[in-house]
Amino acid sequence: MASDPTGTLRPSPALPDHQPPALRDLAERARSYAEAASSANTRKAYAADWKHFAGWCRREGLDASVPDPQAVGLYITACASGAKSVGGRKNAVSTIERRLSALVWAYTQRGLSLARRDRHIATVLAGIRNSHAAPPRQKEAILPEDLLAMLETCARGTLRGLRDRAMLLVGFAGGLRRSEITGLDAGRGQTEDGRGWIEVLPAGLLVTLRGKTGWREVEIGRGSSAATCPVAALETWLKLARISQGPLFRRITGQGKEPGPLRLNDREVARLVKRAADAAGLRGDLPEKDRPALFSGHSLRAGLASSAEVDERFVQKQLGHASAEMTRRYQRRRDRFRVNLTKAAGL
What we know:
This protein is α+β, with helices and mostly antiparallel strands. It is built from 14 helices and eight strands. The chain folds into two domains: 2-132, Orthogonal Bundle (DNA polymerase, domain 1); 144-330, Orthogonal Bundle (hpI Integrase, Chain A).
């Protein structure tokens, strides 16, 4: 890997022109495989982190190309303390840990090694965690009654409303991430940027996804009512939008009358959830300015985990979690105070 003057990581240069064409083709293919090893969002975040570090090094007169644990220790100290050299803003512990991971990854791509366990890094990071770590700020879970209210805000007589209803219901029932929702195609192998596809079966919807740990299947059964059935909502969207090929969820064009060819950006899922939650009056007990921060695309995923009254292992499988502990982090209110140890102890 190499970097441009801004510090952004770029793929390694191609083989010289005098090399056989077959080797140049293999080099191009190798670069595409290397990029496929991580998601586009991860690469984008890592590139931004490297640029941030490289800029700090320039301002401090340090060489970013050399993996110096002492320099990295000073860098994460600057990030934690909000030094002027990093913009004067304190970074959260999770942000600092991600920046450190980005540096390790970047140096590895260059054939170098950053000793993360070196005392200049490990000890400083431990101190940062002890001094600045805070409980995670989880987004509010969208529970079934919340979802029903949100669906009523989606106009049934418009393509946009039908699309939004299908996205909310499929995202909730599948426990899908926002990138998984917008990355779906109408069939297998239809686009290069697709992250999966759907198959409509008599008993429900089979979703095949390419995730962080490989391919997995998600089963979305038909609902008890046509008004709240995710499969019925999706079938209606596909029929009226006349979609049988390519991206499943698309932008609406032609003054709201035609689906465009382009796939929705995954940020649109978060915007939809926030917009529908606000229109439905969710958490109306809070000031209006505080409500948008409560909800995100993950609120649908957390809602399924928090409301599905089934064995935890089925929820874990649906969400694609490697451990039950991760699944429990998504369960917001379902189990709160269900087991009362105070009364169980006789008080």
